[in-house]
Amino acid sequence: MNNKCWLQMTAVFIAMLGIFCCCAAAQAVPQKVEPESVQQAQTVHIPIDAINRETLRPMKNLTASDFSLDIDGKPRAFELSRPWDRTVNAKTGQSEDRPNLLIILPLGAPVDRQQVLDQAIQDLTKEPESGWNISIFDDTGNQTPYTRDLKTVIAELKKIENANSMDVNLTDWRTAAVVAISSMRDLPGRRAVMALGDIFHQRVIDQGQIVYQNFEIEDIAIAARNAGAMIYATDSSQEISLLRRLSSYYSLVGEGPWLLLTRDGHVAGWITDSVSGTIDEIRRDGMGAYDVDVHLDLKQMDGQIHVISITPHRSGIILNAPLYYIAPNLAQLRQMATAFPALRDALKNPPPVGFSAFKMVT
Fold first, then answer.
1. Is 355 exposed, middle or buried, given 0-12, 13-18 or 19+ CB atoms closer than 10 A?
2. Which pLDDT does position 218 carry in this prediction?
3. In the 8-state DSSP scheme, what is residue 197?
4. How many other CB atoms are there within 10 angstroms of residue 209's CB atom?
5. Across-strand partners of 82?
6. CA 234, CA 103: separation in Å to the nearest integer?
7. Pairwise pLDDT comparison (241 vs 311), residue with the higher score
8. Where are the alpha helices (DSSP H) in 74-169?
9. Which end of the chain has the lower number of beta carbons within 10 A, N or C?
10. Confidence band (pLDDT; 50, 70, 90) for 5?
11. Extended strands (E) in 65-170
């Protein structure tokens, strides 16, 4: 072997050795692993409802190619999932569609408050235990805790029925109702609002007489849309003729139940009949509920509001989606993650019985 070949082979060997050393050094540098809570928060779940425009039935076969997603005006990749994919039955270990349901008794609607509550109680008494997560927001502005026990829900409705009516400011009540609906945003699973009466028809009643009435859609509808919740106004079919006369502000589609659309074509909610029929509708509509899953890198976890825009590519569908999402805050999540071990330890090792943190020193 001549000197030239030997020098070439030596150079190649040294170069390869350098590459191996660099790779080894790179592998030796420990990569920072984010806490599990941060990793889970990197996927944002944007709820959407898909409705067939002609039949008004839920779209069961929506695919990611049926629409495009823009975030802050820029196209974003996404995946489709179901809202109940993360709602697991502790007993069976299987995913189940067990919606979150907020029952609202609108202020001043209906006029015959006791009759509507009686009918709601009767209808719910006939329902089997389904494990739905239910809360009640009444006409005084009070809200019950969420519970999956239907008997507790019925008992709360009976308490509301027997409670004395109170003078409540309509504007204050609507604001509180918007907050109650908006707070559903963080509940895992599907979300629905069932109003015992036409929640879009505002009334003020004094001594049994209507002294003021108005139709207001935007506040409640936008709150529900941004929380990923669908509104169902029960026992409201008698107002269809009146609603049709106000068609310049919105449109009413269908022959029962009726879909209420805003001027820009977004879903305001459903006008339905009985409570039992509405619950059946909520069950069926689950087949048209989806989550648009968007993965965020750490820089995108800025805790800020980001505008959502969805463009259908498939004709004949209505896609109802929030106007925005709020990105998780990376700094806060990391701070909370450091506190979790101490909290878990405190829960596993509670202080002895009789111990008081405020024990007097003598």
1. exposed
2. 83
3. S
4. 8
5. none
6. 10
7. 311
8. 113-126, 150-162
9. C
10. low
11. 67-71, 74-75, 79-81, 100-104, 133-137
Contact predicate 150/195, CB 8 Å: no
Nearest to 318, CA basis, from 117, 138, 50: 50
Q: How many CB atoms lie within 10 A of CB 56?
A: 16
- At position 197, the amino acid (one-letter code) is G
User: How far apart, in whole angstroms, are the C-alpha atoms of residue 59 and residue 52?
Assistant: 6
Locus of tokens 């489709």? 80
Residue 74: C-alpha distances to residues 68, 310, 344 (Å): 10, 11, 41
Q: pLDDT tens digits, residue range 287-333?
A: 999 999 999 999 999 999 999 999 999 999 999 999 999 999 999 99
By three-state DSSP, how is residue 204 classified?
strand
Return the ∠ at Cα 326 (arms to 321 and 327), rounded to 5°: 120
Please measure the distance between the N-terminal and C-terminal CA atoms of the chain and give it in whole angstroms: 95
Q: Can you give the pLDDT at residue 360? A: 46
Check if the beta carbon of residue 270 is closer than 8 Å to that of residue 257: yes
Q: Please state the pTM of the whole predicted model.
A: 0.82
Q: Which residue has the tokens 């107002």?
A: 239
Tokens encoding 217: 């859609």
